[in-house]
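Human:
Care to share another protein and its fold?

Assistant:
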Amino acid sequence: MIFIFKKPKIVLDCFTSSSNAMDNKIDYANKFIPDWWKTAPKNVDHNFYSTSTIKRCQGIIDTYRQGFMIPLWSDIAFKVQDGLYQWQFADTKSGGADIHDSSQFDFYVNPKEYGHLKLSSPWLIKSKDDVKFYWTKPFWNYKPNNPYFITDGVIDYKYNHSSHINMFINLTINQLFMLNAGTPIIHAMPLSDKEIVIKTHLVSNEFMDQNIKGVYTFINKYRNSKNAMIKKEKESKCPFSFLGGDK
């Protein structure tokens, strides 16, 4: 008898109440292969022989086989002038952005050279699996001289459902620049060999409000929220949970 075991999968349910976000929805990384890659030749002539180009780089090919990307849900324009910066979403319905005070990061970068901005993503991402994802910028979709950079990190979607995006803006050069809707802004790769399955859902504003975890501490917000969720999980599995306890 031959037993066929299906490879376990990580299901990611991605929720948004924004129709614009659904038009530029979260999707598998291989859906965001840059145009320059598609048109690049595989080989070029070098003196008297042919040699491979970057298009045959297995490291890049495998990168686009991993995880998913979050594209921008709206155009966003930036103006940098004399060490100050402004931004504006084309979609006035977008949640906007938030700024962290420089005292929170001035030991990392000089706040006179870089300004912080957290884009308020319209997506909530949930998974039943406690799997870590590595968040990074979609490197090969970027230009080397970008006027901003996205911060890296590790995240899970069992205990943390938000997908807000931290970035730093270069303040040393006066300039105007814009990022277009649909531009991949985050590449999330699972730290697992399990296949991921992405499901996107357009939901009501009420659903989003009900599924956004409230912030009740100034410090260790994620850790406290995660510990509370783990405690609730353990209590629900306890055979004596019906007896209740201290409230």
Remarks:
- Residues 26 and 144 are 24 Å apart (CA to CA).
- The chain has a mean pLDDT of 87.
- The helical segments are 19-23, 35-39, 58-63, 205-211, 221-237.
